[in-house]
Amino acid sequence: MAAARAVEAVVTTSRAALSVLAVLDGEYGVRNQLGSMPARLDAGGVAHIRVPSLSTRERVLVETALGV
Fold it and tell me: Whole-angstrom Cα distance, residue 54 to residue 58?
């Protein structure tokens, strides 16, 4: 079902966000690591990663988990 939703998003250029594994490129101060992020897909792959707003506590938890 998840793969079908991803294919549908790519084919229709949907604006819906899907949780995908993406290589982080500066999100949370991290580069070249995988992270599960809400993203918009298009025919080229990940069109836009939506970085959620986090509280200070949540940000510290994410940064600790990523080893930042």
Answer: 6
